[in-house]
Write a structure and sequence with these properties.
It contains 16 helices and no strands. It is an all-alpha fold and 397 residues long. α3 packs across α5, α4 packs antiparallel against α7 and α11 runs parallel beside α13.
């Protein structure tokens, strides 16, 4: 695996830390800027919306740039947004920096995914995707708790400074490791033709399945704290342990999926989704038993991120003639799920359905995702059964 792919994972680690760290900083931000806690919570929503909107727009804007230049530009904007956020005393400015940081993060993600795949050998494409996505899982295990600890010791601004500082060595490594030439895979390909390629029904269904899987993942993840403390009966001190277990499982899942999905992507997706449906139901039913909860959270993290990583690779397989925008739409689908899942879980809680209800919502979302994957599998077999497909096999997915 090229060293530059691991550098991309390092940069994604810094940006992933920023995306999720506000969950431990909201009270400090609200008190310092004299805004309600709900207004501070909007900073997280603004980041998610910026990621969804920014990924396609940023990818189209820089599609013909040398990828090293694009990556450094987006990372530079990301760092500047965090410096501005750390310095401001205005809630409005801080909200604007979160949107700007999200737009830069979205653009970086879109370019990083296609860059990693372009540098990896054909039999290592899923593994390269796993390395990049693995940066997010390491952020969940290390970066987010570290950001919360810094916020507790020196205030929320210190966490913003730390994200900016961690991004600097990543930028230097990107400059040294990523080739500086213009991308070959967009020569002669117009933006309009890339967008037309993304209108294929099977690709759109894959993106929908991705959004459903991530929605299920973040619906459960966002409400683990009340589940653990009010249903499982563990003390508040166990919450960081449970979240870390989810992160460890996620890292293990993307690592294992990266090694398996290049050979059998359909099997990884099908088995992973089936296990996620069963696992979410088991977590809801066994939520009162601490040992079961700890084991299932670890397993669910591995299955969710392993399956999600494989689906990202499938998007690129299904859109080889949309090299830049495919990554941007995969990033947008990921974040649509990340924003929608917690909202649906909150609706279930608001209706008084109990603290297990977000897990049941996740199980329902996974049922829809599994149905969509089944339609994809059937359509793939139909395509592979045509005479043209027998002459030139279509990638599984």
């Amino acid at each position: 695996m090229p060293f530059a792919v691991y550098v991309l994972g390092l940069a994604v680690f810094a940006q992933g830390t920023s995306e999720f760290m506000l969950s431990g900083l909201l009270s400090g931000i609200a008190g310092d800027l004299h805004v309600p806690l709900g207004a501070a919570g909007l900073l997280t929503s603004a980041f998610a919306v910026g990621m969804v909107i920014g990924a396609p727009l940023a990818a189209l804007a820089c599609r013909t740039w040398p990828r090293r230049r694009a990556l450094l530009f987006f990372l530079g904007v990301f760092v500047a947004a965090h410096v501005a956020g750390a310095l401001t005393s205005s809630y409005g400015v801080l909200l604007a920096t979160r949107v700007a940081g999200a737009l830069a993060n979205a653009g970086f993600w879109a370019v990083a995914l296609v860059t990693a795949l372009a540098m990896a050998a054909p039999h290592q494409r899923a593994r390269a995707t796993a390395v990049v996505v693995g940066g997010v899982t390491v952020a969940c295990v290390v970066g987010v708790p570290a950001g919360a600890a810094l916020g507790g010791l020196w205030g929320w601004r210190s966490a913003f400074w730390a994200v900016a500082l961690v991004s600097v060595p990543a930028a230097l490594a990107l400059w040294a490791a990523v080739p500086g030439g213009r991308p070959d895979d967009v020569r002669g390909v117009s933006a309009r033709s890339e967008l037309r390629a993304l209108a294929r029904p099977r690709l759109l269904l894959t993106l929908l399945v991705m959004a459903l899987v991530q929605g299920a993942t973040f619906c459960t993840f966002s409400y683990l704290e009340p589940l653990v403390t009010r249903v499982t009966g563990l003390g508040a001190g166990w919450v960081p342990v449970v979240l870390a277990l989810f992160g460890v499982g996620s890292f293990a899942g993307v690592t294992l999926a990266g090694r398996l999905a290049d050979a059998r992507p359909g099997a990884v997706v099908g088995l992973g989704m089936t296990a996620l449906v069963a696992g979410r139901a088991a977590l809801a039913l066994a939520a009162a038993h601490p040992a079961a909860v700890l084991a299932l959270v670890l397993l669910q993290g591995a299955l969710a991120f392993g399956t999600g990583t494989t689906l990202i690779t499938r998007v690129f397989h299904q859109a080889p003639d949309a090299p830049t925008t495919a990554g941007s739409f995969a990033t947008a689908a990921f974040n649509v799920g990340a924003a929608t899942g917690p909202w649906l879980g909150g609706l279930a809680l608001g209706e008084g359905l109990g603290f297990r209800s977000p897990v049941w919502v996740s199980a329902l979302l996974m049922c829809f995702a599994l149905a969509g994957a089944g339609v994809l599998a059937v359509s793939s077999r139909r395509v592979s059964g045509t005479p043209a497909a027998r002459r030139a096999p279509v990638p599984e997915g």
